[in-house]
């Protein structure tokens, strides 16, 4: 991109990047440097990972990090790159409708182009009723329209994470599709059936919902080319990028402790000059 784009323009661009059968791959990051790395590498958008942000700030996952700590981070990431940024906001960091409204207003002021919004009530560790989650999605849509920002609302359905609530895989899939259709009607722009791994079920969801479908790369998920063929529009890594980084750090640290592996340090192609060039780009 050759110029600075407005938040509205970025939101429109982000929407256009979601095409069935031409998946947008998003390796979720947790800081400005990671966002700049992806932009330099040629990614047309950047996504954050709530778990990675929580872990790197010393908190467990699941809305344990204070909302006030993530707002400046989102603002800095959005300002640090010229591509659209979508923020993982879990369930909005509150179950209270009034506070939720305030949180969305504040989020819209950070410059982000999209959000992930879960339907798990973290206070009770269960799913929000469909009508309750639809009200929350409608609120986000109304507030974003009022602000003049066509925010991409990636409605995450956590049905697969609660198998004990359903009598069979069939009833679970039916519940997932029911939520997807309801969320679309409420104003969602995309649908994120997290932890869905079965190729046939993914295809059924894609064909039933008529929204861009987002799949998370968990163990057992189909190959990326297969996901493309099933019509998936978005593929995200969640906290996997952080895990990849930590694996490399752990391996090198273990070797150095035994006076080995110095070449991993001295021959690293990621130099201080390269990192400086990302920041000053």
General description of the model:
- This protein has a single domain, classed as Phosphoenolpyruvate-binding domains (TIM Barrel), CATH 3.20.20.60.
- It contains twelve helices and ten strands.
- It has helices at 7-16, 32-41, 50-56, 67-80, 97-108, 130-146, 169-186, 199-209, 224-229, 240-257, 263-266, 272-280, and strands at residues 24-26, 46-47, 85-88, 114-118, 120-121, 126-127, 152-157, 190-193, 214-216, 234-236.
- It has a five-stranded parallel beta sheet. It has a three-stranded parallel beta sheet with strand order 1-10-9, with no helix packed on it.
- α5 runs parallel beside α6, α6 packs parallel to α7 and α7 (169-186) packs parallel to α8.
- It is globular.
- The model has no long low-confidence stretch (mean pLDDT 97).
């Amino acid at each position: 991109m050759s110029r600075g784009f407005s938040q509205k323009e970025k939101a429109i661009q982000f929407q256009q990047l979601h095409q069935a059968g031409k998946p947008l791959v998003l390796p979720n990051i947790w800081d400005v440097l990671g966002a700049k790395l992806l932009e330099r590498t040629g990614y047309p958008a950047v996504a954050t990972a709530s778990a990675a942000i929580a872990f790197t700030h010393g908190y467990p996952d699941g809305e344990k990090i204070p909302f006030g700590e993530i707002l400046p981070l989102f603002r800095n990431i959005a300002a640090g790159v010229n591509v659209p940024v979508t923020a993982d906001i879990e369930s909005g960091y509150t179950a209270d409708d009034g506070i939720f409204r305030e949180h969305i207003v504040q989020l819209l002021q950070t410059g982000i182009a999209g959000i992930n919004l879960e339907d798990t009530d973290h206070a009770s560790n269960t799913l929000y009723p469909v009508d309750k989650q639809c009200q929350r999605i409608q609120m986000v849509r109304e507030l974003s329209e009022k602000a003049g920002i066509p925010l991409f609302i990636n409605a995450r359905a956590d049905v697969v994470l609660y198998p004990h609530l359903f009598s069979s895989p069939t009833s679970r899939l039916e519940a997932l599709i029911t939520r997807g259709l309801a969320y679309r009607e409420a104003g969602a722009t995309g649908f994120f059936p997290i932890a869905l791994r079965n190729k046939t079920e993914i295809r059924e969801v894609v064909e039933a919902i008529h929204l861009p479908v987002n799949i998370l790369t968990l163990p057992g998920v189909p190959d990326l080319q297969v996901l493309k063929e099933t019509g998936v529009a978005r593929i995200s890594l969640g906290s996997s990028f952080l895990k990849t980084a930590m694996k490399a750090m752990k391996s090198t640290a273990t070797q150095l402790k035994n006076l080995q592996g110095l070449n991993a340090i001295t021959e690293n192609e990621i130099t201080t000059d390269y990192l400086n060039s990302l920041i000053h780009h």
